[in-house]
Amino acid sequence: MEPLDLRISELIKNSDLSYGEIARQCSVDRAAVSRWVKTGKMTTENFAKLCIILNLDANEVLFGEQYESYKQFKSSKGIRLIQQELIDKILSEKESNDDFLNLLNKLLERLKV
Question: In angstroms, what is the C-alpha Rg of the chain?
């Protein structure tokens, strides 16, 4: 597994919630959560939901230790690299996915970003 996949798997395994409860809150079946634990692979929408449910910082999950270097850019002027990468990804979507953008907005609000 890739480092991100391992982080996702470990976060689910180490959470206080059962796989069934995570599944219920993510609107998926329990087998999907088991697959996430085995593979670390999930949709962006489910990743956003998982971060909200487990009260996780999406950046820390996505970037692990590298996130510390991104934090250093907070006080710098202009747009940070990670911000530009996210903007580029959103703009590269062929279809407008309002559900995804709404989830992302909720996640950012919850993280008070």
Answer: 15
**Superfamily for the 3-110 domain:** lambda repressor-like DNA-binding domains (1.10.260.40)
pLDDT tens digits, one per residue of 77-110:
466 677 777 777 777 776 667 777 788 888 888 8
| Amino acid at residue number 56 | L
Determine the Cα–Cα distance for residues 53 and 28; give it in Å rounded to an integer.
13
* Predicted model pTM: 0.59
- Nearest-angstrom CA–CA distance, 33 and 46: 10
Q: Is residue 30 a contact partner of residue 20, using CB atoms and an 8 Å limit?
A: yes
DSSP letter for 14, please: T
Residue 3's identity, in one-letter code, is P
**Residue pLDDT, tens place only, 60-83:** 888 877 666 666 655 454 666 777
